[in-house]
Write a structure and sequence with these properties.
Blueprint (H helix, E strand, L loop, with lengths): L4 H8 L16 E2 L6 E7 L18 H9 L13 H8 L4 E6 L4 E6 L6 H4 L4 E9 L3 E2 L27 H5 L4 H5 L8 E6 L15 E7 L14 H10 L1 E2 L3 E2 L6 E6 L9 H15 L4 E4 L24 H6 L8 E5 L21 E7 L22 E6 L1 E4 L5 E4 L2 H18 L5 H10 L18 H15 L6
Length: 479
């Protein structure tokens, strides 16, 4: 289908730098918790802690520990939880601790008066206090139940195509050939970071999906992640749905954790902290891959907004965290952002992270999607890494219908699901090796650029090359 410029521009107006929300609109109401503030408190160390890297099972799951061992990765001080002694000392200052990041050694505290921060600022183990959120004057209720369809429409079926409406999304990357030989993501666990997963617990098409659990990191928590925006529903569908002749996703036999870390009420820097908390949780429960169809660069009222010079994978809180993911043996797949037609044009954070598989979008004709954010990073790395269909992508909505939607948000999970299948097929390769394998076997690998990166992946070619690599990495029988 060829999209006219007018149609494209209309759609782009609805795409934000994070996840385009598809929430039914509701009247804004006065925010009862206003005024309120959240500060990020950075600590100097992890002293006086009962935890030790010699006993990781006290703070990491068996799967998480085994994932590291399998890839020869050490557990280090960043894995240790924040010192409980320091948390108690902060709470004794009549301050509520609402979150923490062990990798960054930070805590989030909520207060009603900014002067209260002085009680914490002068504690000997506090190195910095940063205001990352203030309550908006009014909010729009988002936890709204909506009706859904019990089944797909009969005319959504394509009788002679097993993958149904999702066929092009997997076939353009040759991923169906992995499915054909039995690699559909089984044994791999994917964390999906998003703003909500409306009706995933009710729509019959998701009933066969192996959902390990859910967690909400946004303050205050929603009554249920299944009441919120259906952006996460749409993202999840591209990987997890398995309804032959209607829709089959790219990793229908993988397991999933659904993690809410995007706050639809405002766009503020604290969402980077929520994102970090979600990633660390995914690590701790043993996830193998993370899909993040989220990105940030501009915040409400300009407070905390980022600059182009920060696109180096380390200068922002979220990208610094994202660059640590590979060191835990996890593959992070992140959308490049939908800012290609705006004033910013470049990647959104954390798509600039090191060793992150950043995904841009292409059209159904495999041409560049104009809204897809471009690279390079400020330190000269090629970005995005690869591309997939996202202009438009075919998804399943929170109303249980098959539809089309625009955005790198949907190109990313298409690739994430197939990356899980590839890793299932090549289990002895490390996260870094899998990412590099995908890059080097993609269709523009000889001439990568900063619009489509290394191009469309060829997952069958990656599998064939990877088999040789995996075999050569094994010790010989005589050793």
């Amino acid at each position: 289908m060829r999209i006219t410029l007018l149609t494209l521009l209309t759609v782009i107006c609805c795409i934000t730098t994070t996840a385009a929300t598809t929430q039914a609109s509701a009247k804004r109401v006065r925010n009862k918790v206003c005024p309120a503030y959240i500060y990020r408190i950075t600590l100097t160390d992890k002293n006086k802690s009962p935890y030790s890297i010699d006993h990781p099972s006290r703070f990491l799951s068996r799967r998480s520990i085994e994932r590291r061992k399998r890839q020869g990765l050490a557990i280090d001080s960043t894995d240790l939880p924040v010192s409980p002694h320091y948390i108690r000392a902060i709470e004794n200052r009549q301050t509520a601790v609402i979150g923490q990041s062990r990798w960054n050694n930070t805590v989030l505290v909520e207060m009603r008066d900014t002067s209260d921060i002085q009680r914490i600022r002068h504690l000997p183990f506090v190195s910095n206090c940063r205001n990352v959120w203030q309550a908006p004057d009014s909010i729009e209720p988002t936890a709204i139940r909506t009706k859904f369809h019990d089944s797909f429409l009969p005319n959504d079926s394509i009788p002679d195509t097993m993958y149904g409406r999702a066929a092009d999304q997997i076939q353009t990357t040759n991923g169906q050939r992995l499915h054909d030989i039995g690699y559909r993501g089984e044994g791999l666990t994917i964390a999906v970071l998003d703003g909500g997963f409306k009706n995933v617990n009710r729509i019959p098409a998701f009933s066969k999906v192996d959902i390990k659990g859910t967690r909400d990191f946004v303050f205050p928590n929603s009554p249920s992640v299944f009441y919120e925006t259906d952006h996460g529903t749409r993202v999840l569908s591209t990987m997890a749905i398995n309804t032959p002749y209607y829709y089959i996703g790219t990793a229908p036999q993988a397991s999933y954790w659904l993690l809410r870390c995007e706050d639809p009420q405002s766009e503020q820097e604290v969402e980077e902290d929520y994102w970090a908390m979600a990633v660390e949780f995914a690590d701790s429960v043993g996830c193998d891959l993370i899909n993040s169809s989220l990105g940030y660069h501009q915040y409400d009222h300009g407070i905390g907004s980022h600059q182009l010079w920060q696109l180096d994978g380390h200068s922002t809180f979220i990208s610094r965290t994202a660059s640590m993911v590979i060191g835990k043996g996890i593959i992070l797949v992140n959308s490049s952002g939908n800012t290609g037609m705006g004033g910013w044009k470049k990647l959104t954070f954390p798509a600039d992270a090191e060793d992150c598989l950043t995904v841009g979008a292409v059209t159904e004709e495999l041409g560049n999607a104009p809204f897809s954010a471009v690279g390079p990073t400020q330190d000269g790395r090629i970005k995005p890494d690869v591309v997939a269909i996202g202009s438009p992508a075919t998804i399943v909505t929170g109303r249980g219908t098959i539809a089309q939607d625009m955005g790198t948000s949907f190109a990313s999970p298409i690739i994430c699901g197939l990356t899980a299948c590839l890793w299932q097929a090549l289990p002895k390769l490390t996260a870094r090796q899998i990412i590099q394998l995908i890059r080097q076997t993609s269709r523009n690998s000889e001439h990568p650029d900063n619009i489509t990166g290394y191009g469309l992946p060829n997952f069958w070619r990656a599998y064939m090359v990877g088999r040789i690599q995996q075999k050569s990495d094994q010790p010989s029988q005589t050793e």
